[in-house]
Automatic annotation (TrEMBL):
GO molecular function terms listed in the Swiss-Prot or TrEMBL record: ATP binding; glycine-tRNA ligase activity; transferase activity
GO biological process: mitochondrial glycyl-tRNA aminoacylation
Gene Ontology terms: cellular component: cytoplasm; mitochondrion
Class of this enzyme: ligase
Protein name: Glycine--tRNA ligase
Compartment(s) where it occurs, according to its Swiss-Prot or TrEMBL record: Cytoplasm
All residue ranges annotated as the WHEP-TRS domain in the record: 10-66
CDD domains xrefs: GlyRS-like_core, GlyRS_anticodon
Main localisation: cytoplasm
Record EC number: 6.1.1.14
Amino acid sequence: MASEIEIEQQLAPLRLLVKEQGDRVRELKESQAPKADISRAVAELKRRKKQLEDKEKALNPPDEFNRSQLETLLKQRFFYRPSFSIYGGIAGLYDFGPTGCAMKNNLLQEWRLHFVLEEDMLEIESSSLAPEPVFKASGHLDRFLDYVVKDVKTGECLRADHLLDAHLEKLLADKNLEGDSRQEIINLRTKVESLSLQELGDQIKKFEVKSPVTGNNVSDPMPFNLMFRTEIGPSGGVSGYLRPETSQGMFVNFDYLLEYNQGKLPFAAAQIGSAFRNEVSPRSGLLRVREFTLGEIEYFYHPNDNDHFKFDSVADVEVTLFPKDHQVSGKPTRKMSIKNAVDEGVIGSRCMGYFLGRISLYLTKMGIDPKYLRFRQHMDNEMAHYATDCWDAECKTSYGWVECVGCANRSCYDLKCHVKATGASLCARETLKEPISVTINEYHSSKVGKAFKGDAKKIMQYFSNLDNDTAEKYDKMLKDTSQIEVDIDSKKLTISEDMIAVKRYEKEIHVVDITPSVIEPSFGFGRILYSILEHNFRIREGDEQRSWLSLPPPVAPVKCSVLPLSAKKEFDPYIKQLASELKLHGISNKVDDSAGSIGRRYARTDQIGIPYGITVDFDTVTNNPATVTLRERNTMQQIRLNADIAPKVVSDLVKGLTTWKETITKYHLFEGQESKK
Ligand SMILES: Nc1ncnc2c1ncn2[C@@H]1O[C@H](COP(=O)(O)OP(=O)(O)OP(=O)(O)O)[C@@H](O)[C@H]1O
């Protein structure tokens, strides 16, 4: 499917023709030209408008869920739009408007309450830009790749797995394709993202895949690193990268976090921040972009204890699971409680189960429809280089199943990588019940300092952290070749026999170093936000179709509207008073005193998902004490209540201290109002 920018580019000439003809009609009318000329010009304007409409429809084919209606709403009410559009835009970058920004902030605030506050997590904010050795050590420099092919004539780059997948999808659309060939393609589609470079190349050749844009042949696939590279500082000597995930900031600060936590495991660090990926083909709106907000948690725990002390709180949470063996054998998903899934070994540990349960609770509270939420386990060859097990929380949208949260078991991979690269001590200390005897390798040197100057400290640190196997391996190398080569901070250093001496002895110890294991839930807020919008998009049938959003109050961009029934001056003091009292309760509100019927204005507030609306009318002014109506968005029911308590009632509703059902039993339903859900 074409990106929004591509669509806009194709529509621009037609829009111009419509505008020109519109101007022409206006000129003719103003100059009181003959009626026949005006009618001809109007007919031409209609023809051009129709041409534009047809093209728009062709580029945005309607599907079961009417995405184009949602997109129109999102554009009109400025949830988000392509960045720099007045310069023609750049694919994969988006700006959030007031509604989108407020909604995203609500998601972040709820995330902090649900995870950081609830679990006493240690939230940090680390730099978005990191020097190259960090990503060399973490493996991103060598392995954070997508495979791309080039159009052999135009040189345009295309993501190889997506290209192959789209081609296979097209083949499957052919109803005449039957039997084994159909099954082979279905099977291949389930593992397209996990094919190796060689396998991808073979399949692209086998199915004679061509560029969908030009129909030209494509090259063999080649690796493309997704990180944005830059130079840090004016002299250009230090290479750096914008982070593709926020987690490295938490790993490199592990020691300080542990100390802050009084040296105790387990604990969780959390971070919200921007991540940057130079995606080959950004597409599908917010779903695949080049800059996005991530919320990540690193739960550090003892590798021999993968329980979670709060497991019981999620034991009964029902989730839909799609384990890897079901994907291979074509079996359907399983709906089960977290407890049963762990007991039956579907989920590997109570710790992983705990986080899947918490993720599910967060997403559904935010408005994800549980029917369209599943947890899919990664296939072994699909996992990121750092993971040993991974479950993605996927939401079904009109684009298919979309990964919104990844929950990976990163074991001790990252901490060990940074220890290896820097010699830093990134481990916890455990006091043993009984002392044990261990081999100590003590390295001494007089010449390393002279030979390696600034690097000497790191080298000696590196040696002091060696495990026994590596120490023995180095002993042998020194004996055999009189030198050893070590890789520190991405530099290969040669240490000769005369530079270093090792003293080895047994020692009884009471404390051991532990490199913790890590479970990492990683939330992409753009994808979550879009999925929530799709899951809550509704149409009210009536004289005219009105689109609206059934967003849960905590997520809604604005919580309450304040509406004067008409433009009467007497309403103003009440409107001001209500708006400021709502603010005192921390309830965001929007006064809509624009012209237009009250019905139209309610419809406008429903469009951005405002859950409650207070209306000031003639009775407000005449009643003593003053009364107002309070309307609930989903049912469109209204109650009448005293103006001075209305803000508090809305505040209680928004904060979940009461429900609408309870509220309508306490106050009177406004005359003639019934549930119109
Ligand atoms: N290009 C992107 N645009 C928007 N969100 C993204 C993008 N890449 C990743 N995310 C979000 O970040 C989360 C964690 O990133 P992770 O590295 O697990 O994704 P990923 O497996 O690389 O995603 P994908 O396979 O879709 O590229 C994802 O669950 C998703 O919500």
